[in-house]
Amino acid sequence: MKTTALRLWYFSPVFHTRALVRGLGHALAERLGVAEAREQDATPWSAAGEEPPALAPSDLAVLGVPVYGGRVPAPALERLPRAAGSPAVLLVSYGNRAFEDALLELGDAAVARGFRPVAAAACIAEHTIAGYAAGRPDAADMAALGDFAGAVASLARQDFPGSPANLDIPGNRPYRRFSPSALPQQVDDACTRCGRCAEQCPTGAIAADEPARVDAGHCICCMRCVNICPARARRADAGFLAALSARLAPLCAGRRENAFFLPEQAPGNA
Prior knowledge:
- The chain is α/β, with parallel strands linked by helices and 270 residues long.
- Helices cover 27% and strands 19% of the residues.
- The strands form 3 sheets. Strands 2-1-3-4-5-10 form a 6-stranded mixed sheet, sandwiched between helices.
- β3, α2 and β4 (87-94) form a beta-alpha-beta unit.
- α1 crosses α4 (139-157).
- The longest helix is centred in the middle third of the chain and has 19 residues, at 139-157.
């Protein structure tokens, strides 16, 4: 079935995953000769109550999420759209440590929602908290995404033969255990109580009437509130940052490259 539309879906608290999904989507649109893709940002708390239209079999979806502790953030999985056998390219972004079970978990969730995973990518992006892999995705990353898009487009022209049975995604079941933790943070007097942090928090963890109050049971340590504050009034606790950076230093050293997964015997994967 000919691909007639591209749908980009992402959960991207600090916009790195969004950049990767958009880059891949633009490259796919060019190679497939379809109109620029329609986007859905599933990150804000308001997205939790939305039920987007199901994708059609002729829609090609790009589904993008960040990796937290080797897993997919629970709110992202809860907000995945539904599909009727639509082919999907899976994408996870991670901060130069490891993506562990996240890509497999995203694939399982996509299948449960009616998607047909046809290709997958694990891409490097600047670490949300500790800042490792600063500046990524960079030009080299986007070039690699373009090459990957070419292979996916070749599959699309063949109606994705052999997918997803021959798509070998690394990971383990059961997935690794991960317990999200709240972000120790400080809010200083520069706060104007504009409400942007509360409005944009992915889990509704920030009180709109008292922005300094964060519900630790709902915070997923995503740094969105810190990154979008127009007054730069929020910041992660310095002691927490120092301890985390020291722990990750030996695990995040050097430059890791993106990993791409195509069905066996697919173009570029023979």
